[in-house]
Design brief:
The complex is a heterotrimer. Chain A is an alpha/beta fold. In chain A, about 40% of the residues lie in helices and about 20% in strands. Chain A contains 11 helices and 10 strands. In chain A, helix 8 links the parallel strand 7 and strand 8. The longest helix of chain A is centred in the middle third of the chain and has 21 residues. Chain A starts with a helix and ends in a 5-residue tail after the last helix. Chain B has one domain. Chain B is built from 13 helices and 2 strands, in the order ααββααααααααααα. A two-stranded antiparallel ribbon of chain B has the order 1-2. In chain B, a hairpin with a 2-residue loop joins strand 1 and strand 2. In chain B, helix 2 packs across helix 8, helix 2 packs across helix 9 and helix 5 crosses helix 6. The longest helix of chain B has 28 residues. Chain C has one domain: ABC transporter involved in vitamin B12 uptake, BtuC. Chain C has 17 helices and 2 strands. A two-stranded antiparallel ribbon of chain C has the order 1-2. The longest helix of chain C is centred in the N-terminal third of the chain and has 28 residues. The radius of gyration of chain C is 22 Å and the shape is globular. Chain C starts with a helix and ends in a 19-residue tail after the last helix. The chains are: A alpha/beta, B mainly alpha, C mainly alpha. Chains A and C meet through helix 3 and helix 6 of A and helix 10, helix 11, helix 12, helix 13 and helix 17 of C.
């Protein structure tokens, strides 16, 4: 895809909700629907995430961003539509099966792991550890130990890259909210995702740490991880993400570059109090 | 025979319904499975026992029950409610714990209630000092052996459940309770004073449980274990009806109570159903009546975890 | 052993509550020793108590690996215990209505298989759901198991119970006849007291060997499991199941493994009990046993194996201690409701004021060989103060 094509594609995206011309799609969401009783949370949402991007997902409160995350990652079962990760349909699968296809997510409120140190909490991250099989603990202890050592080294390396290695042996419950967000991101990276869904990574994080977080996301993106992130902090998302998808009342309102989104009338209307 | 089982099923159902409504309300609004709910019924029964012993018959009687018994019933309801509210304020309220920790605490509370009653009244069975009645003559030709007391239980339960229905449908408090039972977070956001609603939930839930306990004592006997023994049935009713649904709890309670009393019929199903050979039957003794409720509960959890009245997901 | 080489340093490294526990254990052991030496406590009875304590420790291990590790609420400890006891009794006892006279080791295997199947049967419908469903369903399961044992006379002898259970080592070479072969010994530990050790004593001693074996193996298995990635997933599920799911863990499978493992250990306790008591009856399935074990686990510290061990011993203290209350005439009430009250109050007070128990897990739980390469004591560890010579 040449630059000119990309521009053309972006321009087209302002008119069509879902841009069908992306050539390397890691996540495809088609006509996804979910309602809770009378409330329609996701209303025929369709969009794609291209490999190698940091895609932002924004929308006013109640637009259905979190529901969409839960549907995509397998925490909710959709009423209709389909989800594809890396070309495989994962609709209705359990979260762990979807994770096996390379999709990992984080949560809006940092989850506390009682009684663990930061590096212990980090060690939950790696997938398919031999030590997660009960029998291996007794029949292949050497293997378990080797992987544990390697994972611990990885964890400590990532903590170092995130410049929070001094927290490694702190209780996971006694670090600040911002540090917790960093640890969550670091732990999710240990699961080696191809696509990482971040639910409000910057919420409750002080400006200094927020910059650090943005820096890390950009660095990891350059190393090959695709990101899809929900964010309320417009400044944060507009600096980081391209393209940005706007969600309103459960469906995709538009998709475009940060500039396009910021100047689009429909987006402004949606944020100013719902569409007419 | 079947009519007789149906009649006693109706009486027993009334008691289960009174227990399960409160359990379901507390489950959804206070957000934990209250394992002390059965023993709250026991508290009501014994409070009525003491009151009735103190006030006596007070003259005239209705449906074979002296007025004093109805005074005792009110006392049983009141004491159960007060005990539950005090427990809530002293124990649960101050805990910064999740629903699981509250659940475990509630089983400790259940033991405390039961132990205190057992210390006070002994482990043996007792009865209310009311005259044992003969079955109503007019119904005997149909094979139905119910006493006026049984009729009184069903009618009182109907009155209580009817009042609850009115409260839920037509009062401000009732609407808030239903909203909170449906979705506690949403209710909190929309400005409902959840503390007040919670308090009333405990009062109503425990009060109904207390009345159920009094009727259980009248229907059978009183013993310190009476409520705990019923707990499984009440939970089965609540799960069958769908946690958080008051009307589901009523329906679930009704079904579980009926099935429980109809257990003997299962062995002779063939004789009752058309198109089925007479020899057909599910050979299960009445000693397994509670086990049937358990099997139903597990089946519901497998097929429809949100209950028959809940949303299927 | 650091306790012996550097007792002062060992003591100083303990937390306050650990010091309390050590002091308690020392005082209690001293009391028992005095009892033994003066003849007030018969050696055979003492060994019986040790056996019971081991049995409760096993039950606590089982519950700890369900509730303490994973946060699964199992209210049918008594049922799994009963399955273990009846499983082996019905295989090996002379009065068994179905099999009988088989080797106790066969009984052990049968009991464990049945317990595992039962755990699967109750786990399948409930473990996909919120944690409280397992609590409710397991309470029901306990009742159903009790009803079946009580009413299916043709299989279980009903309320009469099963008699004629052989000792655990029946059929083993040497060990089976050891108690009879051992000579009677008379010991005079203090002037004026004589203790005679005869066949029952040696039999009881063998029982203690059995239970120590069971406890030792279970402890070793659980300790390794607890410090492994497997245990870490369980602990993550306990804190936040959604997080574990998001990180790609099949939480249903892990919960099932944890539930079955715990149930097997509980059944093991039942197997031991049957060969200790040589008689089982439906009374042994009394649901109150379940809640003794709950108190033991919460008191010891949910998630802590040594806490469960400690809790198990305390429970025997409570059970056997309150037995003597009956002998004081000035207490006019029955002991049963007092015990119930004590259990209830303990559960409420612990959950309200000290939910972490007396000996909560202390150390970082990382695979041993890996963490040994790291500094022995993290400069600022899981707990602020110190990391003792203890284990998990």
């Amino acid at each position: 895809m040449t630059d000119a094509d990309a521009t053309a594609a972006d321009a087209a995206a302002t008119d069509v909700a879902a841009d069908q011309s992306k050539d390397d799609v890691v996540l495809r969401v088609e006509d996804l629907q979910k309602s809770f009783g009378a409330l329609t949370a996701t209303d025929h949402a369709t969009f794609e995430v291209e490999r190698g991007t940091i895609t932002g997902l924004i929308g006013p409160n109640g637009a259905g961003k979190s529901t969409l995350f839960n549907l995509v990652s397998g925490f909710y079962e959709p009423d209709g539509g389909r989800v594809e990760v890396n070309g495989t349909e994962v609709t209705g699968m359990e979260p762990y099966e979807i994770a096996d296809h390379g999709l990992i997510r984080t949560f809006q409120t940092p989850r506390k792991l009682e009684g663990m140190t930061v590096r212990e909490a980090m060690l939950v991250g790696p997938r398919k550890q031999p030590g997660e099989s009960f029998l291996n603990l007794f029949f292949r202890p050497g293997d378990v130990g080797e992987h544990e050592a390697a994972n611990l080294a990885d964890a400590e390396r990532i903590l170092e890259e995130f410049e929070i290695d001094h927290l490694a042996t702190q209780p996971a419950t006694k670090i600040s909210g911002g540090q917790m967000k960093l640890v969550e991101l670091a732990r999710a990276m240990l699961a080696e995702p191809e696509l990482l869904l971040l639910d409000e990574p910057a919420a409750g994080v002080n400006p200094t740490l927020r910059n650090k977080l943005a820096e890390q996301i950009r660095r990891l993106n350059e190393q090959g991880t695709t990101f899809l992130l929900i964010e309320h902090d417009m400044d944060f998302v507009m600096k980081l993400a391209d393209p940005v998808i706007v969600l309103d009342q459960g469906s995709v309102l538009m998709e475009g570059t940060p500039q396009e989104v910021q100047t689009d009338e429909r987006v402004i209307d949606a944020y100013l109090g719902g569409s007419p | 025979m079947v009519f007789d089982y149906l009649a006693s099923g109706l009486v027993f159902s009334s008691i289960i319904v009174l227990g399960s409504i409160g359990l379901s309300l507390i489950y959804s609004i206070a957000d934990f499975a209250n394992f002390a709910h059965g023993d709250t019924m026991t508290v009501g029964a014994y409070a009525a026992f003491v009151t009735f012993g103190a006030v006596g018959g007070l003259g005239t009687s209705v449906l074979g029950l002296p007025i004093g018994f109805f005074v005792a019933l009110v006392a049983g309801i009141a004491v159960a409610a007060v005990v539950a509210v005090v427990t809530e304020k002293v124990v649960y309220d101050g805990m910064s714990a999740g629903s699981i920790e509250l659940l475990i605490t509630s089983i400790g509370i259940a033991f405390v209630y039961r132990a205190i009653i057992q210390i006070g009244f002994g482990a043996d069975f007792t009865r209310y000092e009311v005259q044992t009645l003969r079955p109503i003559e007019a119904l005997l030709p149909y094979g139905v052996r119910v006493t006026q007391h049984d009729v009184a239980i069903v009618l009182s339960a109907l009155v209580l459940v009817g009042s609850l229905h009115t409260l839920l449908q037509y009062s401000d408090l009732g609407r808030k309770m239903r909203a909170m039972a449906d979705n506690p977070d949403l209710a909190r956001v929309s400005g409902i004073r959840t503390d007040r609603v919670k308090l009333w939930t405990w009062i109503i839930g425990a009060g109904l449980a207390g009345s159920g306990g009094v009727f259980l004592g009248l229907y059978n006997q009183l013993s310190p274990r009476m409520g705990f023994n019923l707990l499984l049935l009440i939970f089965a009713a609540v799960i069958l009806g769908g946690i958080g649904s008051v009307y589901g709890a009523m329906l679930g309670g009704f079904l579980i109570g009926m099935i429980n009393q109809l257990t003997p019929v299962l062995t002779e199903l063939g004789a009752l159903l058309p198109l089925v050979p007479d020899s057909f039957g599910i050979p299960i003794g009445i000693e397994y009546a509670n086990a049937i409720a358990f099997v139903i509960m597990v089946a519901v959890l497998l097929v429809r975890p949100n209950g028959i009245a809940g949303e299927a997901t | 052993m650091r306790v012996l080489s550097d007792p002062k340093g060992y003591w100083a490294d303990l937390t306050r509550s650990e010091q309390g526990v050590v002091a308690f254990i020392v005082a209690f052991a001293g009391l028992l020793l005095v009892g033994l030496l003066t003849g007030a406590l018969a050696p055979t009875y003492f060994l019986y108590l040790v056996g019971l304590a081991g049995m409760y420790a096993l039950l606590s291990f089982g519950l700890n690996s369900q509730w303490g590790f994973t946060g699964l609420i199992n209210f049918s400890v008594a049922a799994f215990f009963g399955i273990g006891a009846y499983g082996t009794a019905l295989m090996s006892a002379s009065s068994s209505p179905i099999a009988g006279d088989l080797l106790p080791i066969v009984g052990l295997v049968v009991a464990l298989v049945v317990a595992a199947l039962l755990a699967l049967a109750i786990g399948i419908p409930t473990l996909r759901l919120r944690a409280d469903y397992l609590a409710i369903a397991s309470l029901g399961l306990a009742e159903v198991v009790r009803l079946v044992v009580l009413n299916e006379r043709q299989f279980t002898n009903g309320s009469a119970g099963v008699r004629g259970i052989p000792p655990f080592f029946e059929g083993f070479p040497v060990l089976a006849d050891l108690p009879q072969m051992m000579p009677g010994l008379a010991i005079r530990p203090l002037p004026g007291t004589t203790i005679v050790l005869e066949t029952p004593f040696w039999g009881a001693l063998l029982n203690v060997v059995v239970v120590l074996g069971f406890v030792g193996v279970s402890y070793a298995v659980l300790r390794r499991a607890h410090r492994s990635p497997w245990g870490r997933v369980l602990r993550t599920i306990r804190s936040d199941e959604d997080l574990a799911r998001a990180l790609g863990k099949n939480t249903y499978g892990f919960k099932m493994q944890s539930f079955v493992l715990g149930s097997l250990i509980m059944a093991l306790a039942g197997v031991f009990y049957a060969h200790l008591n040589l008689f089982v009856s439906p009374g042994d399935l009394d649901p109150v046993t379940t809640f003794y074990v709950w108190v033991a686990v919460i008191l010891g510290g949910s998630g802590s194996n040594r806490g469960a061990l400690f809790g198990g011993f305390v429970i025997v203290g409570i059970r056997e201690g309150t037995r003597f209350l009956n002998e004081f005439a000035w207490i006019p009430i029955d002991v049963a409701p007092l015990r119930l009250l004590l259990i209830g109050v303990l559960i409420v007070v612990l959950m309200r004021y000290r939910p972490q128990g007396v000996l909560p897990p202390q150390r970082e739980l990382i695979w041993p060989k890996v963490v040994d390469e790291a500094p022995d004591r993290p400069d600022s560890g899981v707990r602020e103060a110190k990391v003792g010579g203890g284990d998990d």
